[in-house]
Backbone:
């Protein structure tokens, strides 16, 4: 009797004894919440992606929200968001009271292009409730980067801010103009970049996020708003009568809430895991690239019923997801059927994503919208297993499973 094969999820964390030991040491230290481990992790992360500053938070959503706060997004503003993304990209702007203008995407890559951005700007007046467009949030979907050179040229001409949703793209590099390359997160062509450290991402802190910037004032604002808008820095205190004693020294218990902030703090033990994982990031990326190359070769014969998602020419991505596009009508099966058949073979899959403009909240706020590129991509998309602990044999097994399901 043969034993059942292990289940292959579409993504999962890679945790080893070093990671466990790092967390155990943090749990035995004096700090569990925001202590020195957070600062060490932020510094290491900033150095890893080539940014001047990094602010760690408790989720990728918080990372996006802090970025929106840092550029001063507020009611009366609007942002352009590609509709093919996770909810948090749009929600972060709404948290600030800003309106969202959904942009269509390329139907083969799922990513925002300069042409789609220009089209969204052209219809901004009719969809943004008279708000003024202030920023664009390009999404590096699956780990493949949006065309940042073309997007930046357009945003500079229009005076727009740029926040990269790089939650899928840690460890990648993109073209930065003049035949140069820049790490994702260096903010070479943007104001800020945001990352998720959820377990299925390239590295993890359990739950967590990081926002990077090269601007000192944006860094200060994100630190302030991450913890209730509260400051313990005597240099910033506004009420001297309460803050300082008769001797002119700051009262040791004193703090000030200087703005309405949030509790987006991350723990020291989460950052201990992050710092350990960060040391393994080059290996994680190399392994993902090896596995993706195996998929590229083995999936080619399944065309045209199945196609892989193309990257941005000239970039050097680090894939979070391996996405394929399947012509379900051609095989006479629904996507749900294919997913169920693969699951029966021990192969997990997922769909990334239902276009956000189709979500009830946004449909009720902005009405029905026709974004055919996003709808076409969504109708065909399927994410198949990709994570560093997979083997080449696992890749072959997934491809064999797809071949069986697609007939």
Residues:
């Amino acid at each position: 009797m043969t034993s059942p094969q292990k289940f292959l999820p579409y993504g999962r964390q890679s945790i080893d004894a070093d990671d466990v030991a790092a967390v155990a040491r943090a749990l035995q230290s004096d700090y569990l919440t925001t202590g020195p481990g957070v600062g060490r992790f932020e510094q290491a992360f900033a150095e890893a992606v080539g940014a001047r500053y990094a602010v760690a938070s408790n989720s990728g959503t918080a990372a996006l929200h802090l970025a929106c706060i840092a550029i001063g997004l507020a009611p009366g503003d609007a942002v352009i968001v590609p509709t093919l993304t996770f909810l948090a990209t749009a929600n972060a702007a709404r948290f600030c009271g800003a309106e969202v203008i959904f942009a269509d995407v390329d139907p083969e890559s799922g990513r925002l292009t300069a042409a789609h951005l220009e089209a969204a700007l052209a219809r901004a007046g009719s969809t943004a409730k008279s708000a003024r467009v202030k920023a664009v949030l390009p999404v590096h979907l699956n780990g493949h980067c949006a065309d940042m050179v073309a997007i930046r040229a357009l945003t500079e001409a229009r005076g727009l801010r740029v926040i990269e949703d790089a939650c899928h793209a840690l460890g990648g590099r993109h073209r930065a103009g003049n035949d140069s390359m820049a790490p994702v997160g260096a903010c070479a062509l943007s104001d800020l970049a945001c990352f998720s450290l959820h377990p299925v991402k390239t590295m993890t802190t359990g739950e967590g996020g990081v926002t990077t910037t090269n601007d000192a004032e944006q860094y200060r604002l994100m630190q302030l708003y991450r913890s209730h808008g509260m400051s313990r820095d005597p240099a910033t205190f506004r009420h001297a009568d309460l803050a300082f004693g008769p001797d002119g020294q700051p009262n040791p218990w004193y703090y000030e809430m200087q703005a309405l902030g949030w509790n987006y703090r991350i723990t020291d033990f989460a950052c201990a895991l992050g710092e350990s994982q960060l040391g393994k990031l080059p290996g994680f990326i190399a392994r993902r690239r090896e596995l993706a190359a195996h998929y590229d070769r083995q999936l080619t014969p399944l065309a045209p019923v199945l196609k892989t998602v193309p990257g941005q020419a000239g970039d050097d991505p680090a894939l979070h997801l391996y996405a394929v596009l399947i012509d379900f009508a051609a095989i006479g099966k629904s996507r749900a059927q294919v997913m169920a058949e693969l699951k029966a073979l021990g192969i997990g899959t997922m769909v990334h994503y239902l276009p956000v403009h189709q979500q009830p909240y946004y449909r009720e706020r902005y009405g029905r919208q026709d974004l055919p590129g996003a709808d076409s991509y969504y109708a065909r998309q399927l994410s198949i297993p990709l994570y560093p602990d997979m083997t080449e044999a696992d890749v072959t097994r997934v491809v064999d499973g797809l071949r069986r399901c697609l007939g």
Q: What stands out?
A: The mean pLDDT is 96.
